[in-house]
Amino acid sequence: MPTASPNPLTVGLSKALLPEPCSLVIFGGAGDLSRRKLLPGLYNLMRDGVLPANFAVVGFARTDLDDERFRALAREGIEKYSRRSLDPDAFEHFARNLFFVRGGFADPAAYAALAKRLDEIEPGCGVPGNRIFYLSIPPSVMGVCVDQLQTAGLVRPPDAPPFSRIIVEKPIGHDLESARQLNATVARVFDENQVFRIDHYLGKETVQSLLVMRFANSIFEPLWNQKYVDHVQITVAEEEGVGTRANYYEEAGALRDMVQNHILQVLCLTAMEPPWSLSPDVVRDNRRAVLQGLRPIAGKDVEQHVVRAQYASGFHHGVEVPGYRNEPNVKPDSTTETYVALKCFIDNWRWAGVPFYLRTGKRMPKRASEIAVQFKEVPPILFNTDLHSPLEPNVLTVRIQPDEGLSLKIATKLPGPKVRIYPVKMDFRYGTTFGEQSPEAYERLLLDVMAGDATLFMRRDAVEASWTWAMGILEAWQERGTRWLPQYPAGSWGPLEAEKLIGADGRKWRAL
Predict the structure, then answer these.
(1) Which one from 262, 305, 316, 388 is the annotated catalytic residue?
(2) Structural domains present in the chain
(3) 296 Cβ contact partners less than 8 Å away, ≥ 6 residues apart
């Protein structure tokens, strides 16, 4: 029998980077993110035996809750959304460390009450004063919240224990200027090494494994360049429509909501140079270098390299659904894009001339995210001589969700006396190999903040670099003043214009 594997959440953490006892204050603690992700994630960490034994969780919001009702909210969230089923005894132990403080984000008295409550709670929970503040609130009130934390004396100097850390939830700004303003506001109170800007895509198991796949396997890295790679496709497809997020989405759109953060971060991990160490800033330096090498898309280039569209009415699992403009709280003449496809280039030595095709959209046929690296064709000699029926290319696919794993498509000979070639997949699946569900992204990231490991978080300069690149597209759209976007039926893979974008290069989107 094989020996038990080490816990995947703690592998790679040095003794200096083990999670420390702390209090986690969730601003917006009664909200959807807290109920669906944060509280179930903390419960799972406890069940996995990696959450510090001494911890406290304090929800902070204007919602009319007390400790018991906050615990009931946590129980409901765990029952519905946790990857581990609710165990009554385990939850009872977990719930003892859950507390709630009611107050407005701009109310100084509420922060004074929070400070007093933390001073009361922490000795009983065995917490030595280490505190993490999670801003699961709109960007418009983040600055007020940060200033009130400082005024209430809740923020300690960066190098003096016990520690104070802050987690900033996306969106980090609406454009470059607002992102800079938010970063400057946070920097007035917190040192950069205290700030953890969260992008949950970087916490997904397969996204983390990109570095391992590339730099722990000698067969991939020699081929990971313009000499052997034909192109790369990154797809993030969502089944759902805009749902209850119309008020936010009308101001954001697919480029801001998905490309500027999630997809660009995945692109950086896919394309970055080998870091000389796994030190957080070394890894983040290399990710930022990819953003700096992204060729700007602006002005007339936007028409050639970017497609945007909206979903029209269609069918989702056989049920008719409305188009975007007919969704509740959406303007009837809205030009907010629910789909975007882009053709990008990274102008450096490794990737010169290799196109990266990015696409994301709502109301796609299924929920799926993947990175597909397509290698160049073999010469038209021996087995690839039929120009009308060329061999299918080798493709390495990293599936981010929902079926986490990777596959490599290769050509092989069909059994028999004739030479007939058939494409097959060598497939690896996390669930099949390891026999258990991978930890949720937020679990990994919460644990890293407790350990002070910023590797999987966005640094200020990278956030502003990604916005700088995105602004060229956003400004071109604004100048063009389009009043009607191309449409695609709900339940389809996007508009015809996106097929033309990649088809103009003699390529096509992958079928997921």
Answers:
(1) 262
(2) 21-162 (3.40.50.720), 203-436+459-503 (3.30.360.10)
(3) 469, 472
